[in-house]
Amino acid sequence: MSAKGEVLLQAQAVAKHFGGVKALRDVSLTIRRGEVYGLIGPNGAGKTTFFNCMTGLYVPDGGSFIFDGAPLKADAPDQVADRGIARTFQNIRLFGNMTALDNVMVGRHVRTQAGIFGAIFRGRAARAEEAAIRRRAEELLHYVGVEDRADDLAKNLSYGDQRRLEIARALATEPKLLCLDEPAAGMNGTETEALRLLIDGIRADGVTILLIEHDVKLVMGLCDRVAVLDYGALLIEDVPSIVQHDPRVIEAYIGVAA
C-alpha cells in the first residue's frame, strides 16, 4: 500500500514550445501523495499548458513525467485517465444537453468492464454493472452537493453547480490525482467557500489534488505546497508561508520588488 507523503507525480524538465514561444521552460516539480498542491502564476505563465502536457492534450517538446512509479507517456487523454489522472477545465466542458446524472455516468464508464458487446447485447453482467454505475453517480452528485439537480440538463445548472458537477464527473474515474483548472473562476464568496470545503473533503478521502487557481487567498489557505510559474519557468516550489513572501513571486504578480 502506498503511503501518504510518497512521490506520486514527478515532472522532469518539461518543455513546450509554440513556434518561437517557450510556454514551458524545463519545469521540474514533485507532487506528493495525499497533498493539495497549488500551481499559480500570472496569466500566460504556462499553468494550463503544464496541465495539458501532463494529461495528454499536448505532447511535450522535452522532459518527462513519472506517475505512480512509472513513466507517463504522451498518451491519449483516455489512457491518462485510465492511469489515474482526472482533470477539470478552465472553461467548463460538460455535455450540456445531457442530465447531470448522465454526465457523471459518462465519467464512470472509464472503469467499466462490459465492453462493446456487453453494451450491445445487455447481458446480466452488463445490466448489473450499469446499475452500479448509476448508483455511484448518484453518490457523487450527493457528495458535491447537486443531488437535487440530477435529472436537470447540465446547461440549466447554475455556474457554481456546473463547476461542482464537473468535479463529480472527474471523481467518477476514481483518480489518484485530481487536477482542477481554476475551479473558483467566476464564483462568488459563498460558492468559493463551498468549493474550499469540497476540496478539503476530497483530500480527506485520500485523493491527491493539483490546483491551478488565480484566487491566491484560496490557494494559500488550502495548499500544502505551492509552485509558481512565470513566463514558463518555475520560480519557486515551497510551502505557502515561504512562497507568498518570496520577492520573485511578489514581483511576478505586482511588477515591483518587495
From TrEMBL:
Cited CDD domains: ABC_Mj1267_LivG_branched (cd03219)
SUPFAM superfamilies associated with the record: P-loop containing nucleoside triphosphate hydrolases
Molecular function in Gene Ontology: ATP binding; ATP hydrolysis activity; L-isoleucine transmembrane transporter activity; L-phenylalanine transmembrane transporter activity; L-valine transmembrane transporter activity
Keyword ATP-binding: yes
Membrane-crossing segments per the record: none
GO cellular component, one term: plasma membrane
GO BP term, example: L-isoleucine import across plasma membrane
Keywords: ATP-binding, Cell membrane, Membrane, Nucleotide-binding, Transport
UniProt key word Ribonucleoprotein: no
InterPro entries referenced in this protein's UniProt entry, alphabetically: AAA+_ATPase (IPR003593), ABC_AA/LPS_Transport (IPR051120), ABC_transporter-like_ATP-bd (IPR003439), ABC_transporter-like_CS (IPR017871), P-loop_NTPase (IPR027417)
Pfam families: ABC_tran
Annotated ABC transporter domain residues: 9-256
Lineage top rank: taxon: Bacteria
Designated name of the protein: ABC transporter ATP-binding protein
